């Protein structure tokens, strides 16, 4: 699924209050997650560095940083000398400034997912892999069962409640339940990952984001 295809980034650098507050809380949860789950999930706060190539982008960075600082996110504007110290292999010539938050970071999605799965099963959760939800059974406005397909066989299971945690597919689950897709305003966007030759440890620890990411 999408969990295994993600770019592993965890950041509170956003441009709107809702995402900033949500992801600040998320970072705080990640800081305690290895202890909570009892697994090494390779969580590292190596930072996020956004880069600006124009004065307009620099001014936008300043506004974003003020908003992030307002909610306790320690982002700051840095020059290219400091950016080069943080990322020694960075070609700083095209850039004017950077937005830097050392508390942002990354984790291993494989280890995180399996840590959650292992702990959930320990607590008695019936976790079903390779299983597709295809619909619901309802009585009035209440969902009473979930229909699913597994190994070509369609089954259903009785439920008291349904939690929609389907990420980019959450609107589709809403639609199956007879609700509007727009209740959860999520839109999937495709990104691309490029695999390079191996780098020396420490050469590119922070996640570096070009200007095209600045409106995130």
From TrEMBL:
> Any idea where the FAD dependent oxidoreductase domain is?
1-203
A GO cellular component annotation in the UniProt record: cytoplasm
A Pfam family annotated for this chain is DAO
Q: Please give the Gene3D superfamilies that the UniProt record associates with this protein.
A: D-Amino Acid Oxidase, subunit A, domain 2, FAD/NAD(P)-binding domain
Oxidoreductase as a keyword? yes
Molecular function via GO? oxidoreductase activity
* InterPro entries hit by this protein: FAD-dep_OxRdtase, FAD/NAD-bd_sf
* Record's keyword terms, sorted: Oxidoreductase
User: What name does the UniProt record give this protein?
Assistant: Sarcosine oxidase subunit beta
């Amino acid at each position: 699924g999408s969990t295994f295809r993600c770019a592993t980034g965890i950041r509170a650098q956003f441009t709107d209050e809702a995402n900033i507050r949500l992801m600040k809380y998320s970072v705080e949860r990640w800081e305690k997650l290895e202890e909570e789950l009892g697994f090494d999930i390779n969580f590292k706060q190596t930072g996020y560095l956004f880069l600006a190539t124009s004065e307009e982008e620099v001014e936008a960075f300043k506004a974003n940083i003020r908003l992030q600082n307002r909610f306790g996110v320690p982002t700051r504007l840095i020059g290219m000398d400091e950016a080069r110290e943080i990322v020694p292999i960075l070609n700083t010539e095209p850039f004017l400034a950077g937005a830097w938050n050392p508390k942002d970071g990354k984790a291993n999605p494989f280890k995180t997912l399996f840590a959650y799965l292992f702990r959930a099963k320990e607590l008695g959760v019936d976790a079903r892999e390779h299983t597709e939800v295809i619909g619901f059974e309802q009585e009035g406005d209440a969902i009473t069962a979930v229909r699913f397909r597994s190994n070509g066989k369609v089954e259903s299971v009785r439920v008291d409640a349904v939690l929609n945690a389907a990420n980019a597919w959450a609107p589709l689950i809403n639609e199956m339940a007879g609700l509007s897709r727009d209740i959860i305003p999520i839109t999937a966007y495709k990104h691309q990952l490029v695999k390079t030759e191996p780098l020396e440890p420490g050469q590119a620890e922070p996640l570096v984001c070009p200007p095209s990411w600045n409106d995130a």
